Amino acid sequence: MRTRESTLWTWHLLAGAVILVLLGLHMFIMHLSGLGGSGEEDVLSYSSVMERSRALAFVIVYILLLGVALYHGLYGFRKIVFELTLSEGVERAVTVLIVLLGLALFVIGSYATITAYAM
Amino acid sequence: MIETRSRKQSGGSEEVIKTVQFSVLRYDPKTLPAPRVDSFNVPVTKGLTVLDGLHYIKENLDSSLAWRYSCRMGVCGSCGMFINSYPRLACNTQVLELKTDTVHLKPLPNFDIIKDLVPDLSVLFEKHRSVRPFIVRRDVSIDELPSGEFFQSVEELERYLQFTYCIKCGLCMAACPTVATDRRYLGPQPLTQAYRYDIDSRDDGSDERKEEALGSHGAFRCHFAGACSEVCPKGVDPALGIQLSKRRAFVASLGLLPKKRLAAVAPPVTSAKRREGTPDAPERTVR
């Protein structure tokens, strides 16, 4: 019953579920943490951003969020492109390009996160 | 254009309620460079269907008009067409129920046109065939059991029963927005039939269908617009079938799909043992 496409699609669903949790956490920290007393400026200030960037838990969460968001988004983009009734060869080329694009963006994003952690 | 009249139709006894204009798309790829629209005035009586109206045009106004039909009672699925921008069966659509003065008729979208209102359904049948829409067994040859039966409970039957009502009219394929954009997308009819056999307790052919039904242009391309279920003249819910198919694939991808318990082959009726307590048959009254 399992096919390559059903596996990719299952990951797409699971990535969506993970995004829901991690993005919810991110939104809560960025927009609702002020409810406890500290203002939004505090959350967005340079010192607050750097403080979060130096926390290992945030680094892990950000890299994980980057990975699942890239996978979820790029799989959805691939799905849209495939609706153009392309030939199998073009579809394969599109898949390779999207994988390369995703990997490049993941490396750049992870590099920025890790660099900030090391600062 | 409404013309209310009260006269007897020639050869008939029903009262003409009004005259409705049939605006029909005409096209013959072999002779016409582009489609055109012809209009015909059809006297409408109570209960007159679009199919009856087309017969009236053919008999009285233009004998060259082409469309496909057979049973005239919503069973064969031949007369599907785009009636007032909605895929319907012509035999199943009463003109007065459309509540319009003009009936716009076009061939089903998402299919090539053979002539006038005749769509080329061969793509549908090819896709349907590609999902192997029949009982597949590995342990027993169906060919060796031409009159044999499998054991199947009512509950097992009811799981797929609604999907067996499909008459392959192609209305769901015509309504599907994904079929409109992706010609390689399998479409609601074949995907639903693949699911129908996948969940049939007598069938063991899921692995032979998966590359088509769950491939890159299979069930995962469905946007769940639900148009297929909306237009189905037999009350089949293809959108449900596709979603259940996706769910089944999801569970299978996680390795959580329970192993299918295949229905056993029933012994011939002649070799069945009589149950204890079964009363004797009454004596024959006719010899």
SSE blueprint and pairings:
The complex is a heterodimer of chains A (119) and B (287).
Chain A (H helix, E strand, L loop, with lengths): L3 H29 L7 H5 L1 H8 L2 H27 L5 H31 L1
Helix pairs in contact in A: 1-4, 4-5
Chain B lengths: L15 E11 L9 E10 L4 H11 L19 E4 L3 E3 L12 E5 L6 E3 L2 E2 L2 H9 L18 E2 L3 H7 L10 H5 L1 H5 L6 H11 L7 H8 L13 H5 L6 H16 L11 E2 L21
Parallel strand pairs in B: 1-5
Antiparallel strand pairs in B: 1-2, 3-4, 3-5, 6-7, 8-9
Helix pairs in contact in B: 2-6, 6-9
Any overview of this molecule?
The complex is a heterodimer of chains A (119) and B (287). Chain A has a single domain (4-118), classed as 3 helical TM bundles of succinate and fumarate reductases (Up-down Bundle), CATH 1.20.1300. Chain A has five helices and no strands. Chain A has helices at 4-32, 40-44, 46-53, 56-82, 88-118. The radius of gyration of chain A is 18 Å and the shape is elongated. Chain A starts with a helix and ends with a helix. Chain B folds into two domains: 16-119, Roll (Ubiquitin-like (UB roll)), CATH 3.10.20.30; 122-266, Alpha-helical ferredoxin (Fumarate Reductase Iron-sulfur Protein, Chain B, domain 2, Orthogonal Bundle). In chain B, 27% of the residues lie in helices and 15% in strands. Chain B has helices at 50-60, 122-130, 154-160, 171-175, 177-181, 188-198, 206-213, 227-231, 238-253, and strands spanning 16-26, 36-45, 80-83, 87-89, 102-106, 113-115, 118-119, 149-150, 265-266. In chain B, a hairpin with a 3-residue loop joins strand 3 (80-83) and strand 4. In chain B, helix 2 runs parallel beside helix 6 and helix 6 (188-198) packs across helix 9 (238-253). Chain A binds chain B through residues 1-3, 5-7, 9-10, 13, 79, 82-85, 91, and chain B through 178, 181-185, 206-207, 210-211, 214-218, 220-221, 246, 248-250, 252-254, 257.
Number of strands of chain B: 9
| Major protein interface | A-B, 15 and 25 residues
Strand tally of chain A is 0
Task: Note the total helix count of chain B.
Answer: 9
Question: Can you name the CATH architecture of chain A?
Answer: Up-down Bundle
The largest sheet of chain B is: 5 strands, mixed
Q: Assign the CATH topology of the largest domain in chain B.
A: Fumarate Reductase Iron-sulfur Protein, Chain B, domain 2
